Amino acid sequence: MSSSGPLAQWLAGLASNIHHSDPAMVGIAVVVLAGGCAFCSWCTWRNVSHIRLIEDTPTAKIRSAPQGYVELEGTGKLMDGPPIIAKLTGLPCVWFRYKIEQQVKTNYKGHTQTRWEVVEKGESAETFWLQDDTGRVVIDPEGADVTSRHKDSWRSSSMLGGPLHRPAGVSSFFTSNIGSGSYRLTEERINSGERLYALGLLKSVSSYTSQPTVDEDVRALLKDWKQDQPTLLQRFDLNKDGKIDEIEWRLARAQARRETMKNRQEQVIHSADGLSVLGPTRDGSRPYILSAFTQAELTKRYKLWAVLYAGACFLLGLAAVWVFNAKFV
């Protein structure tokens, strides 16, 4: 394309307008563009780091999986008890996320502008099973980066969902964008029986419960012993004077601590054969990922997003430099 082409002329005109614009406004524009560049750079790094973690972390079997940061694959299953019901469609599932948006119209300089405003959103926090051919673990979805295969979006005249309002197949896309209704409903689901990939922190159930300290357990045990004075005197009144003196009370405290430690050791041994929970790591470098896609599919998605964010980072950075040069150089 020649330097006198339409694009070159448009850029020259834009550069002239920027050069004669308010320096403060141009400075703000440069900062915004640079901020967008930095954000896209961070998103690129995040997706690349996820790819490396998925590819470098070996997949463990549930029965032999060690406590800590692990990668598991299996099938999502509902637990016994009330089923998990999706908020908008009313369909049973093991996990769902939903968003309700309302169409808002405003008048600006004689022109009607339309935008979608989020009025309600949320996702399920109920636990469910991840099961393979060797065992099962509890999945706590709270705090996870979840990707599902099933996503429905449709327009409605009310905030109520339900299966009768939900379009099927390809019509879902058209209904959510060009259909009628002032509300747009979006729902994602992971169904029971779907294959799942999980990367997170595996802990025993006892580690997730709030346990008192050893000293608190000792004090509670001593309190129980005090309420049964005859037994307390029989065990620790060594000089048989009908009361517990300071030396005998020290012996009682030492015995209470020994019994507390023994009970805790038995609980640890018992919980070793019990259930474990997969949950968040609270470590930004170790994400908690749940996905209905396979490792290969998930890696491909992260690679695509990494490329898109890298491209956006380059374009925004280039635009920031060009705008700065057009005004200040």
UniProtKB/TrEMBL annotation:
GO terms under cellular component: membrane
Keywords on record: Membrane, Metal-binding, Transferase, Transmembrane, Transmembrane helix, Ubl conjugation pathway, Zinc, Zinc-finger
GO MF term list: ubiquitin protein ligase activity; zinc ion binding
Gene Ontology BP term (one): protein ubiquitination
Subcellular compartments: Membrane
Transmembrane annotation, as ranges: 24-45, 304-324
Reaction(s) catalysed by this chain's protein: S-ubiquitinyl-[E2 ubiquitin-conjugating enzyme]-L-cysteine + [acceptor protein]-L-lysine = [E2 ubiquitin-conjugating enzyme]-L-cysteine + N(6)-ubiquitinyl-[acceptor protein]-L-lysine
Superkingdom: Bacteria
Membrane topology category: Multi-pass membrane protein
Domain (E3 Ubiquitin ligase MUL1-like) ranges: 102-204
EC number of the protein: 2.3.2.27
PROSITE patterns: EF_HAND_1
This protein's name: RING-type E3 ubiquitin transferase
InterPro entries assigned: EF_Hand_1_Ca_BS, MUL1-like
